[in-house]
Amino acid sequence: MFSTFAILATIFMTSTHGNPMISVSDEPARCCIPKLFSTQIRISSAMLLLDGKSMISYSYNNFSYDASRGLVRMRGVTFTEPDHTQINMWTIENQINGEIYTINMDSNTCYKSINRVKPILCIPDTAMYVHSFTFGDGDKKMIGDTWLIRMEDYVNYVTVSRDGRCVPLTGHYYFHNPHDVNTLIMSDFMPQINDLSIFNVPDICKTEV
């Protein structure tokens, strides 16, 4: 899922507390993100449009992921510039068939698209270890390891926790075409989803083909 809806995790104050960064020779173990979780995610994006103009957006969302069914759900508020809009959005993605339903809850409309980028759920062998950070303070510290993942259409600097859970902490995505930059931050991580019905596609989308 280090792709369309990138992920990160509980955000604290980031600091090295005077400790040296881990060297590349001390490369940490690669890991796979949790198979079931819910979290809060914030996304900042900047895109260069085909007409040469730029568009930026910021959103905060409730995010849920169920690997057993290949389902992603994100619901929240998106702010865009330069058109000064605020939209209540709801997105459901089926990572098995690539279907994405994007619902504008203000206009009560649904748009169906296909995501052809396969998610990366584990740090691949081809990823390059970059460095590590310490998140938190006092006796509540967590090490995050940053990896560089290069794909055909984008590169991603993703940071995951080293506590055995591989919780995504931050993601920085750089897409080549169109030119698009995304930064993602996740917080309030929970290793469960209380209501699985949130993945149900609403009736308004069932006429979309």
From TrEMBL:
InterPro entries per the UniProt record, alphabetical: Ependymin
GO biological process, one term: cell-matrix adhesion
Magnesium found in the keyword field: no
Domain of life according to the entry: Eukaryota
GO molecular function ontology, one term from the record: calcium ion binding
Keyword Amino-acid biosynthesis assigned: no
Entry keyword set: Signal
GO cellular component, one term: lysosome
Extent of the signal sequence: 1-18
Pfam families, per the entry: Ependymin
PANTHER family: MAMMALIAN EPENDYMIN-RELATED PROTEIN 1
Protein name per UniProt: Uncharacterized protein
Protein source organism: Rotaria sordida
